[in-house]
Amino acid sequence: MFSAMLGEAWRAMGANRLRTFLTMLGMVIGVGAVVLMMAIGQGAQESVKQSINAMGSNLFIVLSGSFTASGARSGSGNASSLTVIDANAISELDGVSNVAPISMGNAQVVFGNNNWATSIIGTTPAYLEIRVWDLEDGYVFSESDMRSATRVALIGKTVVDNIFGDINPIGKTIRIKQNPFVVLGVLKSKGQSLDGRDQDDTIIIPLTTAQRKILGNRFAGSVRQIMVQANTPEVMTMVEQNINGLLNQRHNIREGADSDFFVRNLTAVANSAAETTRTMSLLLGAIASVSLLVGGIGIMNIMLVSVTERTREIGIRMAIGARERDILLQFLLEAIVISVIGCLIGLFLGITGAMLVNKLTQAAVVISGNSVMIAFAVAASVGIFFGFYPARKAARLNPIEALRYQ
Amino acid sequence: MAQSLVLVSDLHKDYQTAAGAITVLKQVNFSMDAGDFVAIMGPSGSGKSTFMNILGCLDKPTSGQYTLDGHQVANLSGNALAQIRNQTIGFVFQGFNLLSRVSLLDNVALPLVYSGVNKSERQARAKVLLEKVGLGQYINSLPNQISGGQQQRVAIARALVNHPRLILADEPTGNLDSKTSEDIMTLFSELNADGITIVLVTHESDIAAYASRQIRFLDGRIVQDTRSKTIASIASAKEPD
Hints:
By secondary structure, chain A is an alpha+beta fold. Chain A is about 55% helix and about 20% strand. Chain A has a 6-stranded mixed β-barrel with strand order 5-6-11-8-10-9. A two-stranded antiparallel sheet of chain A has the order 2-3. A two-stranded antiparallel ribbon of chain A has the order 4-12. Chain B has helices at about 50-55, 80-85, 105-115, 120-130, 150-160, 180-195, 205-210, 230-240; strands at about 5-15, 20-30, 35-40, 65-70, 70, 90, 165-170, 195-200, 215-220, 220-225. Chain B is globular, with a radius of gyration of 18 Å. The interface of A and B includes residues 1, 317, 322 and 324 of A.
């Protein structure tokens, strides 16, 4: 019985191919748009999530303040107000799991005939732990390297590509500002940061070495930033207050006076970026759903026309024993078949489109089983919802009047 | 048989129109036994078509009783009425009313879809009936590929496919020429000879003459009810045994 009705639906659709195709096109475009937009939205969310994970979690950054020289005020991070001792004091605070003092600057790096300008980060091994940054090859410098200010370096992927090419850099000697450094390890690629900087274009050296040989310091032991990691997201507010209190006390800042440092909550910034992309992908999905709705209305419109055209057929079927629900099912099935086939084509086109977007723009796209299933379920329900009214209209026809209909 | 196949008593039918209520059937009493061949005649507007629709469970009377095969039709649900139309009654219409996009075989098999018969049996039964009405070679044709008389034979095959007890034919020869009409009426006579009960609406007396009983409607009442020998029985009486 059911298969006979599916056959009927198929025949009715075949009777007016162009009309069926156009009706289906509404669903194809609707489903295709939803799948494509969800793929792009989820792709954006995924890449933001990756950037956040690459940055490390529960992070603060303490920056030194600005200084004023001959009336010109420098930007933050330029005053020499933070020291390694501040960093050590912060690491004693409750709820703090890792602390890394950082000095940084830019320098020209040379290997053989190649040279490259890159950023130099002088820090402690804790920095790699906080940033969840592993090595591709080699090993990290040790505490004893820190104490004796050894000239050793960990280099990023971009630097390797630019000065080493195919040569294995481990154990080779590079020159940073004329100082020879032995390459201990190669950092794993981290890609772009949230603000689009290439995080692999960098060299990490021991903080002590950086201060003495490369960057130079106005005061021994001063650093530009201290990176602080809290144990859990819950203690972050407390840790932030304690850092402020501790440093104000250590720097002899009076109540109400301006501090000579800033504390920034990096995780909050990252979360707001994640929230933005989430909103964006919801918005994209919502706009795409509108076209699905329009497709559904198209189905309803055509089914109403079809019921009117086939009034006499309905009368005949009733006269030879079709029950109301047989007629209802017949027309409902037709609407569902149209929307499900349209949905399958739309899924195919949406997924193809998403892959094309990925190929052409390098933008990340994520086609999840969830979004495909949601699109399919929505399409089937659109078929049922918009097919029901015309089908019920058909089923409630008076058989005598339907038979007389010309 | 103790019970009539069709028993109608004190039947009334009113229609509500913009101009007020119109009475189409008044105090109609009628009964027929299984195996009867009844022709209903009367001018247009006399109520004969409405009477047919009520007999066919397509319409309900305003008042009065209609008993079909022992069932009080007024008490039956929509689904039960559909089942009666499917299994107890076979319809033949003036305009044939075949589905135009569907093969003759599937047209004949269509009532079986609604009685839940499986596909192979549907097709087998439809094929037997198409052969019986002489159209075995056309089973895969479409209705518009055959003549009007042949289409009416297909419609009769469809009416017979579920072994109904009662065939209702509403001016089955109205769209056919006299030679083809004769063929169709001969087919009805043969079916009646096989024991199938037939009610036929016509306004041609030579068509009505095929039936064994003629009823005449006028202004919503039965005004005449006569019995005669059927043409078929006269013809067979002439033949030497």
